[in-house]
Amino acid sequence: MAPPACPYHASLSPAAPFLPRHLYNNTIIMKKVLAIVFLVGTNTLLFAQNDHHHDQAPPTVQQSFQRDNPNAANVSWQQGNGHWHAKHVDATNHHAVDTYYDRNGQHLATHREMDRRDIPHDLDTRVNNRYHAGGNYDAVKIERPHHAEIYKINIKAHGRSRIVYADAHGREVNYRDHY
Prior knowledge:
By secondary structure, the protein is an alpha+beta fold. The chain has helices at residues 7-10, 21-51, 59-68, 121-131, and strands at residues 76-80, 83-89, 96-102, 107-113, 137-143, 150-157, 160-166.
């Protein structure tokens, strides 16, 4: 039969023989809590830095926007994917306008919601004939520097939605919308 264990030595942690087991367990728990608090605090600081001033474009971008849109009011800014995005409502037709600039103030693209009466006749005819849309579609004009304007057509037919990009004559074009 084995000799009875000393109660003092039985209470010591095998991993840290100089600490009683209950203190060793508390130390492990405290280390885990401190590690979690450190990680949460670090992430909070990093995300707070990333969100700082993302709602206000740099002066060069704002100046370019004002030059291109002198009558724009109530402009909201967002930054993402390496570009600045200005949202406002067109004062003449009250439709949403989304304009995109790079960080140096170079105009990348403008997306304008369209009224049906402003859609080019050839485009309207082709969309209705080819996709059997029956006029049930929305259009956004996409203007880009040094490129012909194209239209983003969201066709809503038979309970489904389909997006097609086309030129003013209704011919489909390959376009990947980055915005």
